[in-house]
Design goal:
CATH topology: Glycoprotein, Type 4 Pilin
Strand content: 5-15%
Order of helices and strands: HHEEEE
Strand order of the largest sheet: 1-2-3-4
Number of helices: 2
CATH architecture: 2-Layer Sandwich
CATH class: Alpha Beta
Number of strands: 4
Shape: globular
Radius of gyration: 20 Å
Amino acid sequence: MSPCIGRYRASLVSMVVALTLTYQVHAHTTACDKAKVMLGTLDSSLRVYAAEHGAFPSAKHWIDALVRERSIRGPNDARDPWGHDYVFVPGEGDNYDLRSVGPDGKQGTQDDLVRANGWNSATCRDPAGCGGCGG
């Protein structure tokens, strides 16, 4: 094989790898964006529920409560893009924790998306440091 063909092959392989990584990061970002939008929707729905009922629903029955209120269509609306249930934990008064456990499915890791008391306290970051959602 001539040296020119070898260089072209190496360049072609590098381009394919770069395109593949770009696609994977974009797909991950899209999932993070979807999760952030749904967290915002769930947050709004929970706040409306609390305003109308005087308190947030329980952690055990929050999905059923939002379905009854027609805020969400069903339990699948309470799953993040990676297939994990969103986690809601009511606190004292207006305090609460609402999160997606992120791609790894483990609560409390750096890829979680968290809305605590109306503020994003963490944003989906890829645990391997390969892109993620960013801020």
